[in-house]
Design a protein that fits this description.
- It comes from Ruminococcus flavefaciens.
- By secondary structure, this protein is of the alpha+beta class.
- The chain has one domain: Nucleoside Triphosphate Pyrophosphohydrolase (Alpha-Beta Complex), CATH 3.90.79.
- Helices cover 20% and strands 51% of the residues.
- Strands 1, 2, 3, 4, 5, 6, 7 and 8 form an 8-stranded mixed β-sheet that branches.
- Strand 6 and strand 7 form a beta hairpin.
- The longest helix has 13 residues.
Length: 140
């Protein structure tokens, strides 16, 4: 399942492919809180990096955890304007998975990993497409 968010303007966009994990434990989900808001664990792919490698690297950087990546849930993209990038087109793929063990402190000091109840965070992710992906992860 794939969904497109936002409205594409007549402008040149910066495309950024990314991969994200949605770790679920009971009725809670593992997310990262930053000064901007809540985000899923993951980020943009680096050169020649697979989705799994990206998620493993980002989880270490953002939360200090090793992970086990499961099945793909969905993907989404959005057209938006970013304050430093300009016209931005993130294309994200979402996977379920588990956090295995905390092995270090996160590299990104403004990122705080939290387990949050789904009902508390539902619809409150920074990106609408990440809220949508979270809903897909919790569908029965």
């Amino acid at each position: 399942m794939h969904k497109v968010f936002g409205v594409k303007e007549d402008a040149e966009y910066y495309d950024r492919e990314g991969a994200y994990i949605i770790p679920v434990c009971g009725n809670k989900v593992g997310v990262v809180k930053t000064p901007k808001g809540w985000f899923l664990l993951g980020g943009g792919l680096e050169k020649d990096e697979s989705h799994i490698q990206c998620i493993e690297r980002e989880c270490m950087e953002e939360a200090g955890y090793t992970v086990s990546v499961g099945r793909k849930i969905c993907s989404a993209e959005t057209y938006c304007f970013h304050e430093t990038i300009g016209f931005f087109h993130p294309i994200q793929t979402y996977y379920v998975g588990k956090l295995i063990s905390k092995v270090c402190e996160p590299v990104e000091s403004d990122h705080v990993f939290e387990w949050v109840e789904y009902e508390k965070i539902k619809g409150k992710m920074y990106f609408e497409m990440q809220s949508w992906a979270l809903d897909k992860a919790f569908e029965k």
